[in-house]
Amino acid sequence: MDKKTQLAQALAQAGAATKAIRTGADRSHEMEHAEPIFMTSSYVFDSAEDAAARFSGEEPGNVYSRYTNPTVRQFEQRLAAMEGGEAACSAASGMAAIMAVAMAFLQAGDHVICSQSVFGSTTVMFDKYFAKFGVEFSYVKLTDLTAWQKAVKPNTKMLFCESPSNPTAEVADIAALAEIANQASARLVVDNCFCTPVLQNPLALGAHLVCHSATKYIDGQGRCLGGAVVGNQADINEVIGVMRSAGPTLSPFNAWLLLKGLETLKVRMNAHCASAQTIAEWLGSQNVEKVHYAGLVDHSGHELAKRQQSAFGGVVSFVVPGGKQSAWKFINATCLMSITANLGDAKTTITHPASTSHGRWTDEMRTQAGIEDGLIRIAVGLEDVEDLIADLTRGFAAL
Length: 399
Ligand SMILES: *Cc1c(COP(=O)(O)O)cnc(C)c1O
Prior knowledge:
By secondary structure, the protein is of the alpha/beta class. The protein folds into 2 domains: 11-263, 3-Layer(aba) Sandwich (Aspartate Aminotransferase, domain 2); 266-397, Aspartate Aminotransferase, domain 1 (Alpha-Beta Complex), CATH 3.90.1150.10. The chain is built from 16 helices and 12 strands. The strands form 2 sheets. A 7-stranded mixed beta sheet has the order 1-7-6-5-4-2-3, sandwiched between helices.
């Protein structure tokens, strides 16, 4: 057996970290060890005949970086391997990835069932733009399987969710949603941004497609935007078709940051999860009304999360007594954490969802989703956990 075949077989059975570090390590003729960045918009041909053959697809090979780029391809191969999907298609951002999925699989007259608790821009894109082209959307509670089932119509083509939800960490039963989708001959699309392939593989649970905002944990250091879709080859070919003609492709430089990000994703996720668990447990003994973290045994989604995730993630939220005034006082009293709504960074972030990420929601929508005025969300970073607890202690002291 040649070494390349041997490596391919070893990788097929390898763990997530090995896949992330060793997949798609094709070298150029320079024999570099680390992955090079191919900053090129186009590719040259030896002859007019060669150009014609590549353009027609008769000969495989690169033509133009809106279609293919070696650095971008390496990122896609690694992510697909980690998610256990046949193929991946990357995008300029998480939103571009979700847009490409909707463009590829929906048309006028189709119906989509979506969880109420998805990322804000996702619902804006659906309701403001896709609705304009005649696609219909119904929103249901993430954890209410009966509501998902009841929302199915003859024209339902897609179910869309995120799990765990932001910021209250509700957990979706992905296998049960996949079953509802299959019965309706629809696709289940899961936004796996909060768990990453290290903690959860929705495809193995029956989901048809996985979307990512690679901007968050996959980059891991808050440096760039990126996104991706993972699924079977036939579905990904449809997404690639959208990407090639519409053009929200990932830049080679960002692909390089992201593929290097994947190499450290497992150790980073383990550290995020360990600190988040410590903080969630510590918060329970403080002046709080509630702590939302699926790693706590009394959380409603704990058992389900234990079944379908390998750990509980890096986002913790909690409710302080005294509403918005109190929450703002708390946030302003911290000095280490960054006041920003972003997440998935080495730097811990702290935010007040009711007046930022969910500020445009109506009071009723916020109440239904558990986004109370006293709710504070932290996306636990990679600092020493004792220092984060000291910073939160400053917050509690200000109440
Ligand atoms: C940030 C985010 C997105 C959007 O990703 P961008 O890279 O900012 O476009 C989508 N889904 C979830 C869950 C997110 O957190």
